[in-house]
Amino acid sequence: SSDHPRLQLSPTSNMFIRLVLQLVIFWFTVYVINYALLRFPNTKRSYIRILRSLGCHISICNIGFYSTSFNRLFYQIGRKKPHLWKIWFTIGIFVAFITAVFSCSILVFLPLKYIYDRQQPVLFTRQNLTDKNVPIEKDRDKLWIQPIIPGVNVPLEELGHFFLALLVCTLFHELGHAIAASVEQVRVNGCGYFLFILYPGAYVDLNEEQIQMITAYRQLRIYCAGVFHNMVLVVVAVVFLLIQPFILRHFYIETASVARISKDSPIYSLLPKHSTIQDIDGCIVSTSNDWYRCLRLISDRHVLDSTGYCLTQAEIQLLSSYTEFNQTSNYDCCQNLSQKNYCFLYHSKQNDSQNGACMEARSVTNHPRCLLQSDCQRQGSDVACVYPFSSDNITRLIRIVHSQGPAILFVGSIDEIYRTISIQSYKAKYSFISTIFITDIPLFFQYVAAFSFALAFFNAVPCYALDGQYILLAFIEHLSPSLYRRRHKNLVYSLIFCTTLLIVNISLAFARYFL
User: Fold this and answer.
1) How far is Cα 232 from Cα 96, in angstroms, rounded to an integer?
2) Rounded to whole angstroms, how far apart are CA atoms 498 and 318?
3) Which of 66, 315, 407, 447 ranks highest by number of CB atoms within 10 Å?
4) Interior CA angle at 342 toward 420 and 397, to 5°?
5) For residues 247 and 429, is the Cβ–Cβ distance under 8 A?
6) pTM exceeds 0.85
7) pLDDT tens digits, residue range 30-41?
């Protein structure tokens, strides 16, 4: 055996590796099937005919579709009230310019901040040792730029919201370019949709010759339209999220309703979605805030200080399948005798030391609750306060009372409840009102706000292959055509610098999130 320490990967890294393997298998299968259909003479001709009719093309890690069906629609929209559209897209130039300044400032600031943080490791370590509220492990959720990967930091049950929001944001971005081009009398050759690795996207194919024939100012209206439309979408999403509480007050009642329960939860089949939580381990629950407050209270208590139950000595003897006198702190008196049984500790008159009794958990938890032995004295002198015991000081027996069935006994850690169960504070007043205004629609708009802002943020950067490249060139040409011709090489250097800066920031985001 080797004494060398093994490299331990975080759960996030393991999920990322598993996702990469799944993607490799998927795209390898697509490539093999596509290659085989094109290779064999019996399928080649009909397969190519199908691809052409769909406007489909398949390459490595990419499936795309191209269509001219929407060209007339773009033209009709752009030709209705063109003077108002021109005012609209002129505003877009200023919004895109402000977004570009903000984006470039952030991209310069973040690497400098990272270097500054790396130069002060001693100060950071001392602060964490003295302040218990500051986590030693970096908080990924506070990163300014972070990768969003389904199956890693996007729950599988939110994939529908994720992909729909991403598709809406990209389509709205390209719709801005297409309408602006029609307003400026630039022909739209077609539009395309694609799936690259894992992410859907869209693009519009504009007539480059006609774009070069119009003035730089008119070009700016076209190039800035995508960023502008994404920022408009951000405003729409934020406005909805702000007015949502007013909608909830009039059509929903305040309660603690189950919004989501993960399939890997041990009580997935026992706790119905949209059921109302009433009590958790003796702590009354009325809203989602109460739920998380109760979880914190339970977590802060030591395992031996958890809620107990009042039983007479006769009841203990009747319910016990095994009794251990002089129970030690690291011994489980049940020894896995049954999944229904749990080890409880108590004191008796005959034996002042701590005793352990292996009893059926549901029968015990139906008795009155107690925290101290004195809480049971009112019920008789032979009544003892028995409380659940765990040898690992992590596992707990927690009783959850809800509205759609008998109380649930959860055996596990508090962190598992945090991770697998989500609670919302509202429930519909009337049966005909859907709950999508509580969960699905707000979640969708949260993704829309995040994705749309990200598209505007990155496309505003003067970077190769993004809108910012064309915005910068058209902006300089509009300010001074002679300067544009004389300093063209300097503009290329600026694009290279901004492209490198963007790559550095994205690389740092991945490194800080996964390492």
Assistant:
1) 11
2) 76
3) 447
4) 30
5) no
6) no
7) 999 999 999 888
